[in-house]
Amino acid sequence: MLRTVLCVRRFIVQVLFRFASISYLPSCRVGVVQPVPLFRHASTLAGRARTLAGTAAAALAFGVALGACTPTFDWRTVMNNDNGYTVDFPAKPGNDQRAVQIGGTPMQMVMQTAEAGNAVFAVGTVMLPDDSDATQRAALDFLRAGLARNVGAAPEAHAVQIPLAAGGKTPGLEMTMSGTAGANHESRTVYARLVARGRHVYQAAIVADQPLPQDQVDQFFSSFKLY
Q1: What are the chain's domains?
Q2: What is the rounded CA–CA span in Å between residue 201 and residue 111?
Q3: pLDDT at site 70
Q4: For the chain, what is the radius of gyration of the CA atoms?
């Protein structure tokens, strides 16, 4: 039996962060449009006319439904003064916070996440007990290894410059990897930037079920700026 499912955006993210579990289950399904029954005593010509009209109406309904399911990216700038960054999210972000253990030291991590289309966009901030190089490196390594582990990839990263809101840039790390995540081994593509500044370590990340258009990736990362 042929089944047509439009705009399937069922998305379960096993994680942006090794210790976190965020689930998104938006979906949009369109059922089969049943044609309007023809009048029993209509002529063959009238029947064909009605069939064509019904087909056109079904096509119109199909098009409207497809348009309604098209993912939208409603970009808005979010200024997080508490954690010292600004970024563009494609939807209104939610907030979360939890404790983590990094090198045996308890720390707090806060997250802002927004879902749009087939992807989750997030910025996580780890609050460090001090701003020493060793503490910053331990947090960066923790986040990098966790992201890679979630999709069964190597924790490879390359240097990138992270812009500052006041002008200038600071060194950070960039990662792009693909793999599978979760009990169902679903395909995931992860884009991430990691950076330490003072007593904060940041992780800006996108997790999608397929590679995203580069302009959406660039919009998010180019807008991510530290105070």
Answers
A1: 76-226 (3.40.1000.10)
A2: 12
A3: 44
A4: 23
